[in-house]
Amino acid sequence: MRSPMNTKQAFEQFASWLTTPLGQYVLQSESAWYDQRSVDLFGYRAVQLQLPGLDALRANRISWRCAVADRGSVAVHCLAHALPFASQSLDLLVLPHVLDFAEDPHGVLREADRVLVPEGRLLLTGFNPWSLWGLRRLQPGESPPWQGHFLPLPRLKDWLALLGLEVMQDDFLCYRLPVQRGRWLERSRLLDVAGDRWWPGGGGVYCLDVVKRVRGMCIIEPAWRRIGAAGVTPVPVAEDRGDLL
């Protein structure tokens, strides 16, 4: 049975793991995805939680950006399930693997729903249990990332739906073998192309682009008054007759 590990310890070990060959593969793959999804998102405030080594907002053009973690050299220190931001104050929130190591993943999503403005965007990534990477974590005595939650995507989507958070797009990354040897990583690089085509849900990492919907919200259009026949007195127009000239 795996020994319990708090969020701080888990993220510290995961950050160290990202410097390994396999971790660098994950980091590069996810950085490219975050760049693609965030570049055209606009608003006033954007926040990224945890993992200072991954700048998931580098391609985004929102001027007010902030990094948040419970430790390290970041702008704000706090817990992921208790963010120091007012309700409906953020336009973009990024959670790279936060749900994998948070003590209360559902609480993190509730907090994300609280701080996002209506139609605000949530970008998140996590490890997919239904993949070769999911099988890898079954080995005993493993450390992060293999001790993470590895949340099943259908369950995660159910949580999001209950909060009124709608998945706009889901993608999968990292089909290569989950091994640290650089030679085997390079040999299995063709799996990234073949897996995305033949096994689209089998990538080691899932990526979700989510929007906050607000039930009952509608766009109020200006109430233009129609000028009808009942409200206007018609003006007579003289006929063009020769006897009037």
Automatic annotation (TrEMBL):
Residue stretches making up the Methyltransferase type domain: 65-123
Keywords annotated in UniProt: Methyltransferase, Transferase
SUPFAM superfamilies per record: S-adenosyl-L-methionine-dependent methyltransferases
Domain of life from the UniProt record: Bacteria
UniProt keyword annotation of rRNA-binding present: no
Pfam families xrefs: Methyltransf_11
Swiss-Prot/TrEMBL GO biological process terms: methylation
InterPro entries: Methyltransf_11, SAM-dependent_MTases_sf
Gene Ontology MF: a single term: S-adenosylmethionine-dependent methyltransferase activity
Keyword Methyltransferase: yes
Name of the protein: Methyltransferase domain-containing protein
Native source species: Chitinilyticum piscinae
